[in-house]
Fold this protein.
Amino acid sequence: MGLKVTTAIFPVAGMGTRFLPATKAIPKEILTLVDKPLIEYAMDEARAAGIRQFVFVTAKGKGALEDYFDVNSHLESALRRARKTELLATLRSTNVDSGNIAYVRQNSARGLGHAVWCARRLINDSPFAVILPDDLIIGDKPCLREMLDAYAGLGGNMVATMEVAAERASSYGMLELHSEAAQNQGADVLRARGMVEKPAPGTAPSSLAVIGRYILMPSVMTQLGRKITGAGGEIQLTDAIVRDLGNAPLHGFRFTGTRYDCGSKAGFLQATVALALARGDLRGEFLDFLQAVVGAGVGAGVGAGVGAGVGAGVGASVDAGQDAGQDAGRDKVTPLRQVAGAA
C-alpha cells in the first residue's frame, strides 16, 4: 500500500516511582542498561526502522532527556583535546538534529492515550509509530523494522503482540482475534476484531497481549480527541484503536525478539544481564562472576541468591511480577544456569 512511516512518538511523561529514589533527580528513561540509557535503545530501534522524526511526550523534571540528545560542546571539546576519538564518535552518535526532534508536555497524567494525543499536531496527518521505552525488545531484527515491513502491505493499525500466561492477562491489553486468525495463531500477522484493556481474570479474549509498539493511522488521534475514559478512569490508547475499527483494520504482529519489562526492577536487572552477556568486551569476566555466584548459591556480599532468569529465547519475555524460573507458558524466562552453561 506504500504507506511510509517516518514519525515516532515516545510517551515518557511517567514519574518512574518504582525506581525511587533514583528517579527523584533522574528520569527513568536515562537510567542505564550497561552503558546506554534505556531511551537510547528505543531510539536505536526507531532509527533502524527508518524513523526520521522523533516526538517525546514529557512532563516536568524530564529536562535530562533533552540534554541527552543535544550537543554537549564542552564534553566534545575535552574528548577532542584528549584525542579520544572513539569516545567522541560514541558521544556524537547520540546527538539528534534540532529539526528532527520535538518535545511536548503532558500536563496531567490521564493515561497513555492522552499522552499520544498530546503529540497530535506533530504527525502531519500521516501514519505514525508509538514506542514505549519500558518495553525493551532485543532481537536479530529490530521489532519496529519487522512491523513496518509487514505493515507496508497492509495499512490500517498494527500492534506488537506476544503470548502471555492466563494469570498475567489482566495486566495487559489483550487482542480479540477474527475467527480465521484464531485458527492460525502461529502466523506473524493476525487480523483482530478488537482489544480489551486489562480484562478481569478469566475473561481475556485470547492469550495475545499488546506490547509497547504501535503503528497507527491519524484517525486514531481523532478517536483520542473524544477523550473517552476507560480502564482506571484514563484515556486508553487501546480503546481508541478499537473505536477506529470502522475506519481501519487492526492487525497484531508477533515479533521475534525477546521482550524485557524494564518498567519493573526485576525486568530492568534481567535486561542488564542479558545485554552484558551479549557484549564481547564484558561477557567473559561477567559470566565468570555469574557462574561463581550461582554455584555458591549466595549473592556477592548481600547473602541473596541469584537464581533469577534472563530471557534468551525468540519471542520470550521477562515480565514484571513473574518469578524467576516460573513456568508461564511462552511468557517465560530462561534460567541463568542455562544461559551461563551455553557459553
Remarks:
- The first helix runs from residue 38 to 48.
